[in-house]
């Protein structure tokens, strides 16, 4: 299976920013662990702070890949354009969040993306990505 992981704005700072919320590991370090756990599957990683680049990546992989794991960061709560891109592609998308967004600020409680996604996983730290990958692999 070919699976694309996409991280949105500020997630390039994992391991550095707000460690009490996001932990002290970079995503690149965790991605190496995921590749070891999902041997036999092609995992790809992309990160951008720019909404249009995230949309372009969804368009690029959205008709050929078997799944997308998307942590759109703050765009989750604001981007109708990303929601439209998810709805427009054939590849199933799972929305993930490292923190439990429902235990945070009120504006984080609403996802603009969730209705277009196969499901949402939040609050399990970096393990949210593994849970999403397991769901995609299981079909």
TrEMBL record:
Belongs to the type-II 3-dehydroquinase family. The gene is aroQ. Its EC number is 4.2.1.10. This is 3-dehydroquinate dehydratase. Pathway: Metabolic intermediate biosynthesis; chorismate biosynthesis; chorismate from D-erythrose 4-phosphate and phosphoenolpyruvate: step 3/7. The active site is at residues 22, 97. SUPFAM superfamilies: Type II 3-dehydroquinate dehydratase. Homododecamer. Pfam families: DHquinase_II. Catalyzes a trans-dehydration via an enolate intermediate. The keyword Lyase applies.
């Amino acid at each position: 299976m070919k699976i694309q992981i996409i991280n949105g704005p500020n997630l390039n700072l994992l391991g550095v920013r707000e460690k009490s919320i996001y932990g002290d590991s970079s995503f690149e370090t965790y991605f190496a662990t995921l590749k070891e756990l999902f041997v036999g599957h092609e995992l790809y990683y992309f990160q951008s702070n720019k909404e249009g680049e995230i949309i372009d990546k969804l368009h690029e992989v959205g008709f050929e890949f078997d799944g997308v794991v998307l942590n759109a960061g703050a765009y989750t709560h604001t981007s109708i354009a990303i929601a439209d891109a998810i709805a427009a592609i054939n590849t199933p998308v799972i929305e993930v969040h490292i923190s439990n967004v429902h235990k945070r600020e009120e504006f984080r409680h609403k996802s603009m993306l969730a209705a277009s996604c196969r499901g949402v996983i939040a609050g399990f730290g970096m393990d949210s990505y593994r849970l999403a990958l397991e769901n995609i692999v299981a079909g």
